[in-house]
Amino acid sequence: MLAHGQTVIQYVERLAPKSLAMEGDKIGLHVGTLQKKVKKVMVALDVLESVVDEAIAEGVDLIVAHHAVIYRPLKHIRTDLAAGRVFEKLIKHDIAVYTAHTNLDVAVGGINDWLAEAIGLQNVEVLDVIHRDAWKKLVVYVPQSHRDAVFQAVCQAGAGSVGNYSCCSFQVEGTGTFLPNEGTNPYIGQQGQLEKVEEVRLELVLPASRQSAVIKALLAAHPYEEVAYDIIPLDLPGTGYGIGRLGELPNEMTLRELAELVKAQFQLGGLRVVGDLQRTVKKVAVVGGDGSSFVSKAIFRGADVYLTGDIGYHTAHDAQADGLSIIDAGHNIEKIMKQKLADYLLAQLKENGYETEVATSKVHTDPFVFV
Hints:
Blueprint: E1 3-4, H1 5-15, E2 28-31, E3 37-38, E4 40-44, H2 49-58, E5 62-65, H3 82-92, E6 96-99, H4 102-106, H5 111-118, E7 122-133, E8 135-143, H6 147-156, E9 170-178, E10 195-207, H7 211-221, E11 229-233, E12 239-254, H8 255-265, E13 272-274, E14 280-290, H9 295-300, E15 305-309, H10 313-321, E16 325-328, H11 336-351, E17 357-360
Parallel strand pairs: 4-5, 4-17, 5-6, 14-15, 15-16
Antiparallel strand pairs: 1-3, 2-6, 7-12, 8-10, 8-11, 9-10, 12-14, 13-16
Helix pairs in contact: 2-3, 6-7
């Protein structure tokens, strides 16, 4: 059984919800349609003409990319130019392109977590929180006979998690009353007769991002024709999501040793370093891609060294003056997302009985080489 294109993207968005993307980011479906069966998915960092040629040769139906194929406004699509040929080939071969960019950067278990994991960071936190998932409370009244079924359903949908604890709830037994009027089909009782039922008041907290899923699960598991429930906003700080990660190396090492580790982990021909190579470092900030705008945040959070890409000359001077070392490993270290996202998608598809294939682009898209 092949997965529908929309099903594949639902798995992507389960990992990296669109709501996590930074304002104005060009995410989502860029080319083609998701309203088709997908035999093969290819995960790519960039959608260059060489990557599209690879997708055509491999029989790919859907490319899931990190960087947008449509980033700047299009003035024309000229098929005698490189940019136009990309779209011509995609459309002729019915290859859809979907982009997950800053939402995949921000996501828990996304690119920045993968980068932090690759160099062994511990006690990892978000570097710059840009979004908080507000807390809410679900209150629902359930007949005793369906207490466990409803409880398990809403827990599995994302309610009841507090820190590292799951299925947290408060349950109070009491008596519920209702009068089924004309036109009703009550699960318990009869039309025109006041009914008294032993019920449980079930309370669980949930993040706002899971509200729709929790309510859907609640209504599916609850036996009543009309379910009495409340969603109450809570004045509590929600889980923070944002750009970058901050953590500690397992052991102190010199800046040179860390730079060599980064080179090895990301198979780099070279990288740029700002700072004394013999300096001992422990606390590391990480931002995949262009991290120039987060240098001040890395300094503020007390990082010894900042791993990122695309650092400008004057920005490097400013960081050096403030005592922050920098390892500029290039934008392309985000290529870590290819295998990581492919593994995730393949696991989701197999778990749900789909035979859709998942591959990674083998094309090297870093425009820079060291000589």
